[in-house]
Design goal:
The protein is mostly helical. It has one domain. Strands 1-2-3 form a three-stranded antiparallel sheet, with no helix packed on it. Helix 1 packs parallel to helix 4, helix 4 runs antiparallel to helix 5 and helix 4 crosses helix 8. The chain is globular, with a radius of gyration of 18 Å. The relative contact order is 0.15.
């Protein structure tokens, strides 16, 4: 089994752009380009059965938040004290992705205290998942704390951790875990995004539904996880429910999604509300945080 998914980088980049948006600035291209070096995302399961797809960068997902007026609030992110609630490998991996997105959201919004908390939480989960070496030496964590006010340094540190994680997964033939990380990170990113949509921001709607095109490939990859648990099946079903709901929107019904110009798609408030409700329900299932 071979899976190559540079998704940790993408989760980090997702949070970077969300955070820049929250500050009302244009994304800075230099660090973003540096963090997107992977080519096509490819999954090969058997010699006679392969499934290949290109995973869009969460930078594209994060574009829905650009200039949308999102401001930082720690009530939006997943509580770090919940980390002890995740007791099985799948829930730990999903919430690893959730906390990775939250970490980047904190970093670029210049929230040093919260950023350190999320860094420690990710370290805890990486230890639990047998991925302690993704942090290399303890110097990485120390460097993160000492450079907490230096955005460029923090991005470099996060990229270094990502490289270590990629190497760990490849060495241990566990690249499939990246899909689970990504599912958690995507859900958390969409959770952050719908906070804008709930504030009657009409410019966000078409960009929000545009992100649903990612789901089909993520769902297919999750279904091929070699140790699929009942919980993972529930999460996959939740993603399928979101995917099916959006594909059944009146403006999209019967259309080839690959040919849709989302800038021209109009959905009703009711349809938008359905997506928001399902995203929030899935996020609640992953994190254990009750819906408000």
């Amino acid at each position: 089994m071979k899976i190559k998914l540079n998704l940790w980088t993408k989760i980090i980049a997702f949070g970077v752009v969300i955070s820049i948006v929250a500050c009302g600035e244009d994304p800075t291209p230099e660090p973003i380009v540096e963090m997107q070096t992977e080519e096509d995302t490819t999954i090969d399961y058997d010699d006679d059965d392969s499934y290949n797809f290109i995973m869009p960068s969460p930078l594209q997902i994060a574009a829905i938040f650009k200039r949308a007026g999102l401001t930082y609030t720690n009530e939006t992110t997943s509580p770090v004290e919940n980390v002890s609630n995740y007791t099985d490998r799948v829930s730990k991996a999903l919430n690893f992705g959730v906390y990775a997105a939250d970490l980047s959201y904190c970093v670029l919004n210049k929230q040093p205290q919260d950023a350190v908390k999320y860094m420690k939480t990710i370290k805890t989960l990486s230890d639990d998942l047998g991925m302690s070496d993704m942090f290399g030496t303890s110097n990485i964590f120390t460097s993160f704390e000492s450079n907490i006010d230096n955005d460029d340094s923090l991005i470099y540190i996060l990229a270094t951790i990502q490289e270590n994680l990629d190497e760990h997964l490849e060495d241990n033939e566990e690249q499939y875990m990246s899909v689970i990380f990504f599912a958690g990170g995507w859900t958390e990113g969409m959770h952050i995004g719908v906070q804008i949509a709930t504030k009657d921001n009409p410019s966000i709607t078409s960009r929000l539904i545009e992100q649903m095109v990612i789901l089909e490939n993520v769902i297919e990859a999750l279904k091929q996880y070699p140790n699929e648990s009942e919980f993972l099946k529930e999460i996959t079903a939740g993603l399928e429910d979101i995917d099916n709901t959006y594909r059944d929107f009146e403006a999209l019904r019967g259309m080839d999604i690959d040919d849709v110009s989302f800038a021209d798609i109009k959905i009703s408030d009711e349809e938008l509300g359905m997506i928001i409700e399902k995203v929030e329900a899935l996020r609640s299932k992953i994190t254990g945080v009750e819906l408000q």
